[in-house]
Amino acid sequence: MSNFVQIKILLIICLAAAYSIPTLAQKDSKNFDQIKMILFQQEQDWNDGDIDAFMKAYWNSEELQFGGANGITNGWQHTLDNYKRGYPDKATMGKLTFQIKDMTRHSRKVVSLTGSWELERENDRPGGHFLLIWRKVKGEWKIAVDHTSQKIDL
Length: 154
What we know:
alpha+beta, 154 residues, Nuclear Transport Factor 2, Chain: A
């Protein structure tokens, strides 16, 4: 094979690779936008006092993991029960605000999202940070792992 043919083949490979990069970025952007939409719908559901709607973002599976101050909770129903026990009314729920710090795609079906949260309530403003592992399950993005921490004033 001549050098000219080798150069043409190399050029074609490079061009093909260059055209695939925007496609991956566009897919990331689309997936990230879908996840952001779900997260901010969660924020709205919380602020409406609707924990059941808030929980729709979570993977409805016994494999769901929620890590917090009281340890690890396994399972969707157990997580829902804990939310309802910890936030029995709209006053304890307060007004929730999320801020996204970073999103990273780990595979076609796994994205991590880190951020912060704050509750504005009548007598306090608790807040903290979270790490969510999102999985694409049956074509929908769901939170499979949630690790949420609360800031402690020292």
